[in-house]
Amino acid sequence: MTTIEAPRTPAAKPQRRRGINWEKWGWMYMRASGVVLVVLIFGHLFVNLVAGEGVKAIDFAFVAGKLADPFWVVWDTLLLWLALIHGANGMRTLVNDYATNPTVRRILLGAILASTVVLLTLGTLVIYTFDPCPAGQPADLLPSFCPVNQ
């Protein structure tokens, strides 16, 4: 005699894999970083394009003035890191979904990782090593807080 289980009988629990669930954390990162990025991007666009004289005011002195302020250094660093890692994670997801050959998948994931590390390193170096008062430049091109080199 065959027994049919009741329709609402729970199925056997699947075996839980041990370790960190990277897909879950990647999914959560995408949602959290997306919300923070919206604020950072619209703040960046407002300050650069709307406030003050608008886009015509963006020149070396404008950028130098922003990067002389620790608030904007942190803001731009967050924007750089969150946007690059967010994009790299999205590309990782696409590669995992569409690259069926394991060798090709490893190569593509390695290329994404390498390009992300290089861009994060270079971008962070630019933000933190930027000299707003380069020697030998005309005073009218420098921000107002730079000492005049004579």
Automatic annotation (TrEMBL):
Where, per UniProt, does this protein localize? Membrane
A Pfam short name: Sdh_cyt
Q: Tell me which InterPro entries the record gives.
A: SQR/QFR_C/D (IPR034804), SuccDH_FuR_B_TM-su (IPR000701)
Annotated keywords: Heme, Iron, Membrane, Metal-binding, Transmembrane, Transmembrane helix
Q: Has the keyword Cell membrane been applied to this entry? A: no
Q: Which residues cross the membrane?
A: 26-51, 71-95, 107-130
The record, for SUPFAM superfamilies, names: Fumarate reductase respiratory complex transmembrane subunits
Q: Report the protein name in the record.
A: Succinate dehydrogenase hydrophobic membrane anchor subunit
Q: Which organism is it from?
A: Antiquaquibacter soli
